[in-house]
Amino acid sequence: MSKAHNILILPGDGIGPEVMEPIKKLITYFNSKGATFETSEDVVGGAGYDKYGTSLDDSTLAKAKAADVVMLGAVGGPKWDKVDYAKRPEAALLKLRKELDLFANLRPAIVFDALIDASSLKPEYVRGLDIMIVRELCGGVYFGEPRGIFDLGNGQRKGVNTQVYTTSEIHRVARVAFELARKRGNKVCSCEKGNVMESGRLWREEVTALHAAEYKDVELSHMYADAAAMVLLRNPKSFDVIVTDNLFGDILSDEASMLTGSLGMLPSASLGAPDANGKQSAMYEPIHGSAPDIAGQDKANPLATILSFAMALKYSFNMPKECAALERAVSSVLEANIRTGDIAAAGVKPVGTQAMGDAVLKALIAG
Ligand code: IPM
Ligand code: MG
User: Among all ligands shown, which has an atom nearest to the Cα of 284?
Assistant: First the structure.
């Protein structure tokens, strides 16, 4: 018997639980084919707040640390808008990322041929598009100190966040980008705002230094993040791997998702550094949010979550064949014109979340 793979399922809020259902079926299927997945489940985000009085309970965090992989749905919703910042649903996500030290966030933007027309760009700009955005996830303005809202005592208040990066934080995420590039198109574009920010200047200098020392075989370019936002629309296929900081990565990956047709298509993997025993923390989640407006209506697109699970097969479970088979299943379902509302062509009746999940499972079984 090979060692069991422990997966902690955290469906979260809004559409999170719905898009996670198909994953449970996929896990059952892979187990029937000899995989050794063991799952447990807990609540986070608003659901965590409702149960534990905080969006990420210590017991949940401990389970996440012990698991091989965390599968996360989505967090947040208007119900918790007034909750104290530290206990808000989003705080759970940030704490998971920080506590598990998931510094490398991989967000692939891939255009499936069948979805060419769902893209907001003309077909010739996006056909065959395959970009990997590597977003730094544990530093920068999301976590920098000082931060807060301060009373200036004169009727004015001051909101403060701090953008900060160190050499080692930059090197470790850039290294992930260079390594990935070697297995793909061998190009890295590093994005920052070094023209106005010292942290950006340091970012550029350190990426350049690491490249010169260890990755001369990879083609490296630099771009200011605003220019990168423009090139993503003008000539997206000129990119292979993009490496950038936490905030710019957040924005550029939402933008890139539109090239693929829908926010509902973009998966992500968040990876830590392997420890002495080779165990590498990992969390997989769709990049979309909890979409409270359509929650509970069986309308959400589960493909981003399914593709996130495919990434788990590849990056955490060393199951590249199964990953490829699952991605092929997604592709064949799209080719068969089975679509949720967000990617349905005009005149095509959309299917629901669970029907979409079942269609992918059926295609997987059919091979
Ligand atoms: C993302 C999301 C999160 C982020 C939010 C929900 C905190 O937008 O994963 O891209 O800003 O990182
Ligand atoms: Mg985002």
Answer: 1
